[in-house]
Automatic annotation (TrEMBL), chains A, B:
Keyword S-adenosyl-L-methionine: no
Residues in Fumarylacetoacetase-like C-terminal domain copies: 138-435
This enzyme's EC code(s): 3.7.1.2
Domain Fumarylacetoacetase N-terminal: residue ranges: 28-131
Descriptive protein name: fumarylacetoacetase
Class of enzymatic activity (EC top level): hydrolase
Residues binding Mg(2+), per UniProt: 245, 265, 269
Cofactor: Ca(2+); Mg(2+)
Residues annotated as binding Ca(2+): 139, 211, 213, 245
Active-site residues from the entry: 146
GO biological process: homogentisate catabolic process; L-phenylalanine catabolic process; L-tyrosine catabolic process
Length: 440, 440
């Protein structure tokens, strides 16, 4: 990932709201999503977030002010999902990023800048949709701290399965139930087996959890039977988002032997609406290292570039806003905070592993990282870890409430951002969802 | 499932090839698929198999000879995938079935019969595509005999997980790598851990297997958060096919703790091209019973209709054709034969379970039954069962070869049919695939 003028922290935009030092969407970010005017029945169309506005990419494309490869990419980004843009690959993405950056920069004049000035819609008036038509959704399990936290609850003496340090574990998730941030869902019904019970009980989930994850969208992808080598993997990643893989722990633990999670995970998965491109994240890439006494990556999962800059330093936090918080106008208590840099496997390794047997990835497919937990207890990415399997309460100081699992009416809010002195802040916005009572 | 004139065994077609007593596609069957002329670059379009011909549904729709609900269903079936037809539901499916049946019956005259006479394409000249754009693919695990056979290899003392008799176990599969019968695939590369080894090895799969399954396609489906009750489940099933869930056992066994199969299953899944409708299968429904000393279904998985006729008596067989068989012009040795009637859970129970937590099924989604094995050793639906985990050889009498797992160049052929005295034979055709050498 090379740095270029789009990463220059000193460049400001003619749009004042883009220049706030604590904003998620400065001119150096330019994340993509799809939107329509809230309350309308308009078709969804591509948009780019800048400051407190959305650039309507369909309007921008219609202006004819963008030409060449950037113009083609803009056209591809103007539909109701971004699959066509994602399919174009890094050269086209780069051309469009440069063109948008230049036209948004302070002092920009000419048809492109005029077109963008005429294509702004306030984010407060936008309803966001799913960024892509997701063909398949895969969820990985790449945080060793999460795996250890969960494993210690289930098997204290042997918390980590032997394969964990050798390959990025994953399972196939459910694409149809991925929803954009802000979509509420009903507490799921299902079977659970109580400790010592002779028969399972059918009823509402009693151990409802969230999972702090990041997601990433596939770019061009590969043909079936043609794996993506690790050295090529990053060119197949369009960008990243926040992801909450809501989990019904009681249902999951009863159903998952021997074939893995099913109903425990497929009732709802929430994603943040803005996809932050890998280009925007370039200043925040960090080395990927393994402790010397642990297995090093097999050759097909190893590359110099991956070792040098395979990680991404994204700051993450989870908040819980109960009905009482909401009634008091409070944004919710922070349950945990961590960074994505602690992951045991990188995005490139996940892509290489996913395809090594010949499985085909398609533009717009969604891959999740698995729950992201850091090395200390306050960095755990799921409430089952914070409450040690429901045996300890988690405090909500602002309201004096406690939780072991989620209750009806609770809203969980994920936030993520990259920030460091001398670099532009790159924000992900938020991913939120509310638990509605069970229907059943 | 009520019987009507379309199930009358005495009705013959004006198309002579449809009247062969051992044919898969008599007038009482009328399975749906998508096709184009082999070797052409035409768009795929809907078709119905009759005798040795395909009815081109786009041509039939274009004739204007079919009106009303049948005409609308025909229009929906004329596209490059059958999702729109599947979405219409049983009333429309029934109207189209009646209209096609009447126009194909011996002695039929008038514009509809003329339109079908003009819309015939020989099956020998047709290239078949995937019947639907599959949004999500789910694979169940509903044969107790398969679960016991596999479980005895892994855990002789405790072969069945405690949840097996309480719910139809399932996992999410990979939709992108589902291919139509006849598509060859490369032996997958991946990691496997040898017995007693200190580190896994990366290389070509050494324990490649097939899985004899049936698949079924979702009809109208449900909104997220709105489960399909078991009493309604059958109206959400369009029809059934043969399915081979190719499996890399060495990769699978290494990777699958704790989240289930991933690369071991996602390199290729083959389906037969013709979807046999639930209406065509109505004469072959059989009671669904449980031994009295085993857990009976919980209320949400139970209904009188399901007990009376939840099963389907489909005869199934697996053949293996090695390169030597092929060189000798031999169709391959039969490895096993069984019936779908032995399953521990029904299609309706699978639909009810899949949606009970709120997961949404969409028109065209594919659900697999899991490997189908019958109660005796010769009825096992995977070679890992026949070879007892690779410890015994399986004979191929026609060539004098043996197998423990699949070798490069092997073709596996699944066939299925319903047949009983006094009823029309309802065939599924075949599902075949060839193993190509690894690329790596």
């Amino acid at each position: 990932m090379t740095l270029d003028r789009t990463h220059d922290v000193h460049t400001r935009s003619w749009l004042a709201s883009a220049n706030a030092s604590d904003g998620d969407f400065p001119i150096q970010n330019l994340p993509f999503g799809v939107f329509r005017r809230a309350g309308s029945q308009e078709a969804f169309r591509g948009g780019v977030a800048i400051g407190d506005q959305v650039i309507d990419l369909q309007a921008a494309a219609g202006s004819g002010a963008f030409t060449g490869l950037a113009g083609q990419a803009l056209q591809a980004a103007s539909h109701s999902a971004l699959n066509a843009l994602m399919a174009m690959g890094p050269e086209a993405w780069h051309a469009l990023r440069l063109a948008l950056f230049d036209a948004l920069a302070d002092g920009a004049t000419g048809p492109a800048a005029d077109a963008l000035r005429g294509a702004l819609v306030p984010q407060a008036q936008a309803e966001m949709g799913l960024p892509s038509r997701i063909g398949d959704y895969t969820d990985f399990y790449t945080s060793v701290h999460h795996a250890l936290n969960v494993g210690r609850v289930l098997k204290p003496d042997d918390p980590l399965t032997p394969n964990f340090r050798w390959l990025p574990i994953a399972y196939h998730g459910r694409a149809s139930s991925v929803v954009p941030s802000g979509t509420a869902f009903h507490r799921p019904m299902g079977q659970a087996m109580g400790p010592g019970a002779a028969a399972p009980q059918y009823g509402p989930c009693r151990r409802l959890d969230y999972e702090l994850e990041m997601g990433f969208y596939v770019g061009p992808g590969n043909a079936q039977g043609r794996p993506i080598a690790i050295g090529e993997a990053e060119s197949h990643i369009f960008g990243m988002c926040l992801l909450n893989d809501w989990s019904a722990r009681d249902h999951q633990f009863w159903e998952m032997a021997p074939l893995g999670p099913f109903l425990g995970k497929n009732f709802c998965t929430s994603v943040s609406p803005w996809v932050v491109t890998m280009a925007a994240l370039a200043p925040y890439r960090v080395p990927f290292t393994r402790p010397a006494d642990e297995p090093q990556s097999l050759a097909y999962l190893d590359s110099a570039a991956n070792r040098e800059a395979g990680g991404v330093d994204v700051q993450l936090e989870v908040r819980l806003q109960s009905p009482r918080h909401r009634a008091a106008g409070h944004a919710g208590d922070r349950l945990s905070a961590t960074s994505f840099r602690h992951q045991y496997w990188t995005l490139a390794q996940m892509v290489a592993q996913h395809t090594v047997g010949g499985c085909n990835l398609q533009p717009g497919d969604l891959l999740g990282t698995g729950t992201i937990s850091g090395p200390t207890p306050g960095e755990a990415g799921a409430i089952v870890e914070l409450s040690r399997g429901g045996t300890q309460t988690v405090d909500l100081p602002a309201t004096g409430e406690t939780r072991t699992f989620l209750e009806d009416g609770d809203t969980v809010i994920l936030r993520g951002w990259c920030a460091r002195d001398g670099r532009a802040r790159i924000g992900f916005g938020e991913c939120r969802g509310e638990v509605l009572p069970a229907v059943g």
